[in-house]
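User: quick one, sequence for these tokens?
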């Protein structure tokens, strides 16, 4: 479409242009909108969480998530503009999560993004949610390429060799549950609430991480694939045969967390060693886990590997990270038409 080309040319000719992207993220249960300047500076970053909607079910209910996105999307977008003191006329492009995720949720964000793109005559850029997680770190610091990127969230656990802002090579993912999903399922089974990661981390502080030896699924020596369903089943079996009290539950939480952290830390380090890189970036909701941060920093230091983590609010789902990815895609001339659809599955770097 003509206006897209004009805007891109204008951007190309004027590299000092402030280039403000309105980014929208609705891939799962958080409604996010952000204004990002030059792919780096956060002018605003709003997230409306739906945790209280899904808490009583112990997991995300897709139908409820899309309904809540519909209610939230316009207030969140309006809020992001107000917080940044900008109007829609000052936006240069709209970036939106196109997948992977829940289609009913994605479509709410995509429809809003298309409406803004069409009415304001500005480009629309569809973004892979995983790319957003991998680039979130650039909102806070410049990490030299190449690095190993690990996304550990409720929906994904995957390792990438990241060679540039838009250059990703998939190294391995989970065969079954994602790391965050295992935290959520174990927390649900133990009756601790939803989402499970934070409650397990809090409870683990009162427990002994060496109390119970839960299995670590390394799959094969040096394998970069993950599997977390075994440790989850091991927790269920342990509870059935021991009927633990409060102290016992704290030990289970600490021992379970240690088993997951051991696997994540070792695999990201193996990936760095195999590819001869000295930097690793970990993102996604599970990356806010302080035991994971502490263990990877320590273990990496001894091996000359530096670990980077975005701040916890940028690790979990947010629109600012989508804005970073949209900026770099747009800079490379990538944009979408108004016929863009939502993708429930969208492998990155394969
Ligand atoms: O990235 P995110 O907000 O959404 C997805 O893309 O999935 O990640 C949410 C996941 C949930 O499974 C949650 O339990 C987990 O991240 N999580 C944590 C912690 N905080 C959130 N897992 C372990 N420790 C935490 N502190
Ligand atoms: Zn995510």
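Assistant:
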């Amino acid at each position: 479409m003509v206006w897209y080309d004009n805007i891109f040319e204008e951007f190309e000719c004027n590299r000092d242009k402030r280039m403000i992207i309105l980014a929208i993220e609705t891939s799962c249960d958080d409604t996010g909108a952000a204004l990002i300047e030059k792919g780096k500076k956060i002018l605003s970053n709003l997230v409306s969480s739906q945790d209280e909607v899904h808490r009583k079910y112990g997991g995300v209910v897709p139908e409820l998530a899309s309904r809540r996105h519909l209610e939230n999307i316009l207030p969140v977008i309006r809020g992001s503009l107000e917080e940044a003191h900008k109007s829609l006329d000052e936006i240069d492009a709209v970036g939106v999560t196109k997948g992977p995720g829940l289609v009913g949720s994605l479509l709410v964000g995509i429809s809003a993004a298309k409406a803004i793109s069409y009415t304001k005559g500005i480009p629309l850029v569809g973004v892979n949610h995983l790319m957003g997680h991998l680039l979130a770190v650039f909102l806070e610091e410049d990490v030299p390429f190449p690095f190993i990127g690990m996304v550990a969230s409720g929906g994904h656990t995957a390792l990438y060799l990241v060679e540039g802002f838009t250059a990703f090579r998939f190294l391995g993912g989970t065969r079954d549950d994602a790391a965050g999903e295992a935290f959520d399922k174990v927390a649900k089974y133990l009756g601790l609430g939803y989402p499970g990661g934070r409650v397990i981390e809090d409870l683990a502080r009162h427990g002994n991480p060496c109390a119970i030896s839960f299995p670590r699924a390394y799959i094969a020596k040096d394998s970069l694939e993950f599997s977390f369903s075994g440790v989850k089943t091991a927790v269920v079996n342990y509870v059935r045969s021991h009927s633990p009290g409060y102290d016992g539950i704290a030990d289970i939480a600490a021992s379970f967390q240690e088993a997951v952290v051991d696997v994540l830390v070792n695999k990201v380090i193996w990936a760095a060693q195999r590819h001869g890189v000295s930097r690793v970036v970990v993102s996604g909701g599970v990356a806010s886990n302080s035991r994971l941060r502490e263990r990877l920093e320590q273990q990496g230091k001894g091996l000359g590997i530096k670990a980077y983590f975005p701040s916890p609010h940028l690790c979990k789902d947010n629109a600012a990270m989508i804005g970073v990815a949209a900026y770099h895609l747009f800079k490379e001339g990538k944009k979408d038409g108004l016929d863009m659809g939502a993708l429930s599955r969208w492998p990155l770097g394969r």
